[in-house]
Amino acid sequence: MVERVFETEFNRRHGPLVQRAAAIAGSLFDGSAIDLRDTGDEKAGDERAASGRKRTVRLARGHHAALTRESTGVTTVTYADPTAEASLAMLLAAMAGPDEPIAADPESLSVFALADRLANTDIPVLINGPTGTGKEVLSRFIHARSPRRNGPFVAVNCAAMPEAMLEALLFGHVKGAFTGAIQASEGFMRAADGGTLLLDEIAELPLPLQAKLLRALQEQEVVPIGATRPIKVDLRVIACANRDLATEVAEGRFRADLYYRLNVFPLALRPLRERPEDIAPLAFALALRHAPADRQDGATRVPCLSDAALAMLRLHSWPGNVRELENVIRRALLLAHGKAAITPEHIVFDSPARLLSAGPGHSGEQARAEVFGNDGARKLSSIVQNSEARAIVATLEACGGNRLRAARELGISERTLRYRLASLREAGIDIAPRGLAGGLR
Fold first, then answer.
1. The domain 106-271 belongs to what CATH superfamily?
2. Nearest to 173 by CA among 237, 232, 222
């Protein structure tokens, strides 16, 4: 991939953008599987795409951004400004493979760089982070970069398994070991032999099973239910938790010995709101994934996110992290059906998913005029103000109108929150949360 930068004509046309992308992609993607080409070099790109040896990405300069994936798998990125955030985001989204991570924020890139170094070892890894931040994506990245990459990757959600069946599902059982065991089962740990076992939401494991898991990890062997002899396994364990396991240990809900067995090298993924530079490439990747293919030629023409839409996404607090972003993008694709761009009017957040009403004396047309200019173009200052207001209202509602708690959740002081509330009222925006008859406290 990077060698294309040294081709004179390709470098003249696309060098600035490709160099920016290469600095990021080198730590995330398999560069040998990516073939970057100018749109004028169509034949070679088609041959490589047809052979299945490479993911072909064609680059074109144009007045308007465009993102298209052909039925052959070739992706075309058309951009105007190589220094724009959207241009880099589109290219990263086009370059990423189905199971490869997408990131651009320095915090995220540092985590993946460390994970790449860890991949060559067999030490257990504990990944902490809120739900929906990409812990399984990071786990698969570690597996793919490890010597075990050709072995199985088995992901187990400990919270999704019925407690009565957990032991049998993890360790397996012999035929007739219990009622309904009409045939033997190897269990998840034996299924992961030679590869990687991901134990997601491990804090949900009941204490008795934690002790059995600890022994299995220490001895690298399992005893299926109903069996009398242990069976050796060779696997690497990655555990994920959305709660602080140290706190769980202190409060007696998680075994200290298992915690220290898993916590050999901890990694942490921050909430999406604290990784703002990840939002644009993730948004384009999700749009590329969910945009419907054209029924005529099978190509996928993705409506590109406008700069104003990207500004709205960056200002949102993202309580649902990447899962919420995926919901927002899928809605936007539906609302922007048939249009070339996703604009702010197509962005509907999970919480709150409503526009704030104007204050007393403001008609609907007057409120619209405050957000839109005379020519109907949305003003960036109004986008910022309304996005901030939505975040404040949602947080106040979640905190029952308590301003001190809401300020803590928003990461600002109570004084700053009071100032923001006063400014919004002066702008004619009603910020009273729904269902709080007693008002703010």
1. P-loop containing nucleotide triphosphate hydrolases (3.40.50.300)
2. 222
For the chain, the C-alpha Rg in angstroms (whole number) is 25
CB 417 within 8 Å of CB 403:
yes
pLDDT: which is higher, 246 or 389: 246
What does the pLDDT look like over 343-375, one tens digit per residue? 988 998 876 433 334 344 444 444 444 444 444
Q: Which of 2-11, 123-132, 309-318, 343-352 has the highest mean pLDDT?
A: 123-132
Of 414, 300, 394, the C-alpha closest to 352 is 394
Question: Measured in Å, how far apart are the chain's first and last C-alpha atoms?
Answer: 57
Q: Is this prediction's pTM over 0.85? A: no
pLDDT at 379: 52
Residues in CB range of 178: below 8 A, 6 or more apart = 168, 225, 226
Every domain range in the chain assigned CATH 3.40.50.300: 106-271
Q: Give the residue from 296, 391, 309, 311 showing the smallest Cα distance to 350.
A: 391
Helix (H, G, I), strand (E, B) or coil at 151: coil
Give residues with Cβ within 8 angstroms of 407, minimum separation 6: 413, 414, 416, 417
d(CA 62, CA 391): 36
Q: How far apart are CA 347 and CA 332, in angstroms?
A: 6
> For residues 56 and 76, what is the distance between their CA atoms, to the nearest angstrom?
9
C-alpha closest to that of 388 among 349, 339, 360: 349
The predicted-structure confidence for 276-329, as pLDDT tens digits, reads as follows: 999 999 999 999 999 988 777 778 899 999 988 998 898 888 999 999 999 999
216-219-220-224 Cα dihedral, nearest 10 degrees: -40
